[in-house]
Amino acid sequence: MKCGLNCPIEYESKSNDLQCGERKFAIWPDGNHYFKRAINDLVFKELTCFIPKGIIIVDFSLDHILLFLDKEWIEKLRMTGLKIILVVEKSMLPMANFWMSRSELFGAVVVNNGVHGFVEKIKRLMLGRIPKCRRTPSFTDHEMTTLRLLARGHSNQDIALVMQCGARNVYRFQYSLRKKFGGMDRLRELRFRHAITAPG
What we know:
200 residues, alpha/beta, five-stranded mixed β-sheet, 5 strands, 44% helix, elongated
């Protein structure tokens, strides 16, 4: 995990040994060079952060969906001591809303209205103003559990056993996921991604 200047960000347990004078900014995950460059040029270089602890901007996109299926990512980022801001791909809004309603994330910005609107929303957050976020659509607990199990390659029969429900309920959860998440192809893509990232 690195700041806008590519310096490593230490967790709070090591916060006495700061490695960067500009520690107020960080990006996670930091694998997308173009996202990092855009955030650095549009936000970190241009805006001043008035949040004392600083912020960490999360690339909440479909490319990183496997990182967001369980709550470990939130616990990991909390340990930095920075306020967490999600930059949300539109198709990921239901999942972002799921986590926003179940944790103390500072804010979220949906990328759907051009660069100017995006920068203005980020600016308000960096001034310490919590924006009014659209809380729908959002995944339910049952839908999120179904999504996790689908991503791990479980069959509908397996999911019914794990969730202790009937197959009809599993199909109902999947139907709702398709409506919120963008179709069955997205669910199939999840299974494929897990297949190529899971340890062999």
